[in-house]
Amino acid sequence: MSERVVPEEGRRRRRPTKQGTVLSEELIVETALRLIHEHGAAALTVRRLGAALGADPSALYRYFRDTDDLLLAVADELIGRTLRRFRPTGEWRADLRTLGLMMHSDYQAHPQAAMLTCARVTGRANETRSVETILGILRGAGFPDPEAVRIYHVFVDQTLAFAALDAAVFVLPPGARKAEEETWRRTYARLPADSHPHIAAAAPVLVAEMGRSGYPAALEMILAAAAARLQQVRSQHRPEKRP
């Protein structure tokens, strides 16, 4: 695609495509997400999108400057899917836990797209709302702005890092994925105690743990650290008792 996106008021296609649908930004993003899920990054071409939509590929220029602009819209849609499901309770730790697990889950539902989008900053509506939501949770809990921003940064980066890492495992060929899982049983669980005493002692737990994502545990560690920091902040601002 090239730098010739049409202003929003002129975008709507007046005639249906060959498949009888009217193009919209939402339809293009949904179709791109489906194609990425089925075919990976190679699917994100004007020709493939045009064929899937039953439209002339040049019509996509009316909505997106280039494929990178479309990719940012896909990234923003994944964020939006989480936000549309999220229902805050007002308890900051529970809300961050729910939000983090939802984010991770939504990315795992689209592992190919997760690998392409987790490192991107979209600046679009859903991402902006996500930043506002998380900072609101933290500031509402009593974190000073520097602490709120720092925890936001760590929380989001950790979530996205695990989303990308776990997505990379999901998209492995089935044989390769099974072989990696079996390595913990075939290799690590059989190492002798005289040469690898710590691995041998922890082998049953190690085999069970390494077969699943480390994100839920990592999330709890961040929440515990944030709670401890909030307690420190509160104690520093607590007025001293006079004798």
General description of the model:
The chain folds into 2 domains: 8-65, Homeodomain-like (Arc Repressor Mutant, subunit A); 90-236, Tetracycline Repressor, domain 2, CATH 1.10.357. With 243 residues, it is mainly alpha-helical. The protein is built from 10 helices and no strands. Helix 1 (25-39) packs across helix 2, helix 3 crosses helix 4 and helix 3 crosses helix 6.
Q: Which key features would you list for this structure?
A:
Arc Repressor Mutant, subunit A; Tetracycline Repressor, domain 2; disordered N terminus
What is the fold's blueprint, element by element?
Elements: H1 25-39, H2 46-53, H3 67-85, H4 92-108, H5 111-117, H6 125-141, H7 145-170, H8 174-186, H9 197-209, H10 215-236
Helix pairs in contact: 1-2, 1-3, 3-4, 3-5, 3-6, 4-7, 4-10, 5-7, 6-7, 7-10
